[in-house]
Amino acid sequence: MGRLSGSGGRKPPPFLSPTASFSSSSYSKRSRPFRRLPSLPKPPLTPPAPRFAGRRRKKASARLWMRMDRWGGCEVFMCDKALVAERSGVHTRELSVIGPLLSSCPVILAREKAIVINLEFIRAIVTADEVLLLEPLAQEVIPFIDKLRHHFPLKNLEVDAGATQMDSLDGNHDELPFEFQVLELALEAVCLSFHSSLSDLNKHALFVLDELTKNVSTNNLERVRSLKRNLTSLLAGVHKVRDEVQHLLDHNENMAQLHLSWKQTKNQQDQALLASAAINSNFPSKTSLARPNHIINHAMGIDTSVALDTDAGNLEMLLESYFMQLDGIRNRIVMVREYIIDTEDYINIQLDNQRNQLIQFHLILIIVSFGIAMNTLIAASFGMNLPHNGDKNTAEQTSQQLKTRQPMEAGPLVGDSRTGSRHTFI
User: Fold this and answer.
1) CA 284 to mean position of chain CA atoms
2) Mean pLDDT calculated for residue range 362-371
3) How many CB atoms lie within 10 A of CB 216?
4) Nearest to 115, CA basis, from 319, 309, 311, 257
5) What pLDDT band is residue 38 in, cutting at 50, 70 and 90?
6) Model-level pTM greater than 0.85?
7) Residue 352: pLDDT over 50
8) Which DSSP category does 74 fall into?
9) Which CATH number covers residue 74?
10) Of 43, 111, 272, 278, which sits with the fewest C-beta atoms within 10 Å of its C-beta?
11) Parallel/antiparallel/unpaired status of strands 130-134 and 413-415
12) Burial letters for 271-310: b for 16+ Cβ neighbours within 10 Å, e otherwise?
């Protein structure tokens, strides 16, 4: 027992001591022969997976815009849809109405803070204080810009604000709001463009149809076809603008949404009322101010409703006047088309008459040729050599004469070489 417990006892076996086990394992690893495994072929390098989540969208291209406010200030700048949407308060999706894909679809779209106008060549966004015009350097848009500058000359901001306050105190609401004036100028420019195009087409139609009545040729017919195509496209444009104006006249809610100045004034009044209510709530003891504030608010509401009714009536009269102009242009286009159709009917009648004359002449030729053929048939029938009994004796005599002449012709011929004469011996 003492040997087992003492220090001089037997050492533990090597597999129980950690050092021994480590040394043995290391020794066994070192003593093992090194075997190199065969190298496996490396897998092909695969391209990295595309990162769809991190891909950025293409930035919208910047376009040329012009800004003009009610005081005559004007500037031209380049920007994209995001900046225009932020400035005008219109959603980016709604700006596609004035894009290149929907440029041929006239629309007057009313939103909370702006009006989106797309009428033929005029593509603009109108707010209560300014107008943003797309592509202001186009040839068709320049006259509209000149009208805007003439209608809204450069003014001083303070002087114009003071004049506006004096007009509101005097109750003068004859002048249309800024957005209605811009809409009127846009409709006027479109109607003038339709008038000028129709006048040019009318003059061209008179000249082309006169040439066609004088000479029906392929060139003149091609010019008439081009004229009809231009008239059809013009009529389609007038119809679209006319239908859009009629849609506004038929829906009073849409016309009410066009009144941006009234909505802006109402929002300012609501903010002022909220501010005054907050001030009154801080002083509950002063109840004498409640009644005057109620009277002021009631008076402001009556004034605002009167202004709204007046402006709504003016807008309705404005839209009706331009609706009548567009209807008159449409009627003129229809009259020009009817004139072209009448001329085509006249040309068809002339061609039918000429065709009938050719058919008649052809029938006469057929009759004449038939008569000549009959005469030829009769003459040929009488000129045939038909045998009959009276010719038998004549035939026998001719045969006997031939028999007697044959031996005479068979005799020799003797000639004199000096005189050149020949004698026949029988």
Assistant:
1) 64
2) 94
3) 14
4) 257
5) low
6) no
7) yes
8) E
9) 2.40.128.330
10) 43
11) unpaired
12) eeeeeeeeeeeeeeeeeeeeeeeeeeeeeeeeeeeebbee
Burial status of residue 71 (CB atoms within 10 A of its CB: 0-12, 13-18, 19 or more): middle
CA–CA separation, 66 and 133 (whole Å): 5
Predicted confidence (pLDDT) per residue in 125-139, tens digit:
999 889 999 989 889
Q: What are phi and psi of 109, to 5 degrees?
A: -105, 120
| Domain containing residue 158 | 60-163
Residue 223 shares a structural domain with residue 274: yes
What is each CA distance from 276 to 113, 282, 284, in whole angstroms? 25, 10, 13
Same-domain check for residues 129 and 178: no
> Which two three-digit tokens encode residue 174?
């004859």
Same domain, 253 and 342: yes
Which of 67-71, 221-225, 421-425 is the least confident region? 421-425
CA distances from 344 to 201, 210, 361, 425 (A): 17, 11, 26, 97
DSSP letter string over 12-23? Answer: PPTTTSHHHHHH
Vertex 213: Cα angle to 209 and 217 (nearest 5): 90
Residue whose pair of structure tokens reads 């057929």 in the numeric block: 366
Q: Which CATH number do you get for residue 351?
A: 1.20.58.340
Q: What is the pLDDT of residue 111?
A: 86
- Residue 96 DSSP code: G
The tally of domains found in the chain comes to: 2
Look at residue 290 and tell me if it is in a domain: yes
Q: How far apart are CA 376 and CA 424, in angstroms?
A: 51
**228-257 pLDDT per residue, tens:** 999 999 999 999 999 999 999 998 888 888
Residue type, 165: Q
Once rounded to an integer, what is the mean pLDDT over residues 307-323? 81
- Tell which of 131, 163, 195 closes a domain: 163
Q: Indicate the length of the chain as a whole number.
A: 426
Buried b (16+ CB within 10 A) or exposed e, 222-255: ebbeebbeebeebbebbebbbebbeebeeeeeeb
Domain boundary among 120, 144, 163: 163
**Tell me, what's the pLDDT at 233?**
92
pLDDT at 29 over 50: no
Distant-in-sequence, close-in-space partners of 238: CB < 8 Å, separation ≥ 6: 194, 326, 329, 330, 333
How far apart, in whole angstroms, are the C-alpha atoms of residue 27 and residue 352?
Answer: 121
